[in-house]
Amino acid sequence: MPCRFLRAIPICILFLLPAPLALAVCVADVGITADLLPAPDEGMWRYTMTIAWSYRDHTTSTWQLYAVVPGTDCDCTELAGQYRFPDDAGAAIGAGGGCEVPYAGALECGPDSPSPDYPYLTFVAGDGTSCTMPDGGVTTLVFDSVLPPVATDGEFLLVVDRTCAIAVHGVRPAYSCGAVRVDGLGWGSLKATYR
To answer: Between the CA of residue 35 and those of 50, 141, 148, what are the distances in Å?
Structure first.
């Protein structure tokens, strides 16, 4: 039997979860808003993700937003045409100012992605960052999509440096590709993991 119980406490749970789901929970607030862009980008939505954090220094954190809700079966070629990143994809600004770090964004999907089954919108800090934010700060990241916004109720996750995950509130792109897979862990079970 692969699971053992120590004083009636299961110690096998993390080993049974898919890798992206076995992350700790970060302490931060993450919200996404969306605005329709004017000409010449008519039909595109600008999504702005705001991350407020204070519990550790995220000066050069890599932020990875799930491109779709976990369990949705979307093809990478479908997703590639639905997202766009501006040259300046955002910045982290330390509490009290004095430190600002630029970010670049990209879609990671398919066999070259660190997690082939979980396509991410990845935001990486620019090179040459020398300042720190020990007292916390706010990171604002942006991406564009042809997909209109729909409300999210925490099912859209942000992964921080592959160490923890945060439920996102606000809106997310209303992708139409794929149906939710019935194999593997259901979303109700996933949400229970973070409670």
So the answer is: 14, 14, 9
Angle at 135 between CA 133 and CA 139, to 5 degrees: 55
pLDDT at 8: 37
pTM for the full predicted model: 0.73
Spatial CA neighbour of 63 closest among 189, 145, 156, 147: 156
Q: How far apart are CA 143 and CA 86, in angstroms?
A: 7
- Mean pLDDT, the chain cut into blocks of 10 residues (195 residues total): 38 32 68 94 93 71 80 76 91 80 88 70 81 80 94 76 82 73 39 38
**What is the pLDDT at residue 15?**
27
The amino acid occupying position 90 is G
Instruction: Single out the residue of 142, 176, 178, 120 nearest to residue 41, CA to CA.
Output: 142
Query: Residue 84: what are its φ and ψ, rounded to 5°?
Result: -145, 145
Any bridge partners for residue 144, and if so which?
46, 84
What structural domains does the chain harbor? 23-193 (2.60.40)
